[in-house]
Write a structure and sequence with these properties.
Oligomer: homodimer
Shape of chain A: globular
Number of helices of chain A: 6
Number of strands of chain A: 5
Chain lengths: 141, 141
DNA sequence: TTTAATGCAAAGAATTTGCAAGCAA
DNA sequence: TTGCTTGCAAATTCTTTGCATTAAA
């Protein structure tokens, strides 16, 4: 059900983009897959002995090459996920938990946007905000 | 066609939320309406003699009270618009121009998200990225 | 060997905080 | 008058940059 890649596939992914294969790059990508939608800080916590600079450098490069997608959040921090995932995010306003769901049809909205505004549209992001089940129960007590 | 408010309506809006009426608050809200989707910096440029702190404080308060919506951008800066506007944004990846368009039907997506994830959904934001007409022409030359 | 990747330290940019002075109610 | 609002200065936080060291190809 999930689109996880093993490390051989990650190596291929890097090679396709002309990037050198380093343990750090593999680890960063593995963390992005394993963690859901980590921030740079969260990646750093799970992968000790790696400089923040390296994480920033690589994540930035991955984003510019469209290997990784950047999800800007309202507190100014960004979260990251693999670019090949094709889903939307529901974010808990109370605890921050992010749950994914798939909804493939919004190309219609891109088309409409393109027609109405004459932009040449490439992509879109959507964040849906609410309260997760746990926080609903906590609040009910 | 636009949902502009005159300053009497802005005063009412502040009173409804129990906020004191100050010239600065009126000016900040007027700028948010007039500018489209300003950053804090852009508000400061148009309203000299107001401290950045005041703009940050008020905008933050407006957001927490849902008077103003925050649109997080990938460079880490946020842009702001009145919360009552009900539209989506197409953002030019080349020059940053934002064009609004109305598309009222996405409550369906909120409903679906709610059903699939059991979140209690409150709102969503969507950003559509592409190239504006001007930049398309510039690139064609 | 050649060039890219790493990481420390320092710089930069956006935002927040502490606190004193000013103004709305 | 009372307490919210304002704003300066300083502190914080997140991110980027310069440059010397290390490692991939």
């Amino acid at each position: 059900m999930n689109g996880n890649l093993d490390s051989e596939e990650l190596i291929l992914l890097l090679k396709e983009h002309g990037l050198r294969i380093t343990p750090h790059r593999i680890q960063i990508l593995e963390m992005i897959i394993a963690e859901g939608h980590p921030t740079v800080e969260e990646i750093a916590k799970r992968v000790p002995n790696m400089s923040l600079t390296t994480i920033y450098n690589n994540v930035k490069q991955f984003v510019s090459m469209n290997i990784v997608k950047e999800l800007p959040f309202e507190n100014g921090m960004s979260r990251y996920e693999l670019a090949k995932t094709n889903n939307y995010h529901v974010i808990c306003q109370s605890c921050g938990l992010i749950v994914d769901f798939t909804f493939p049809n919004l190309i219609e909205v891109e088309d409409l946007a393109s027609r109405l505004t004459k932009y040449k549209v490439h992509r879109h992001i959507m964040g849906i905000y609410g309260i997760c089940t746990d926080c609903q129960h906590t609040a009910a007590r």
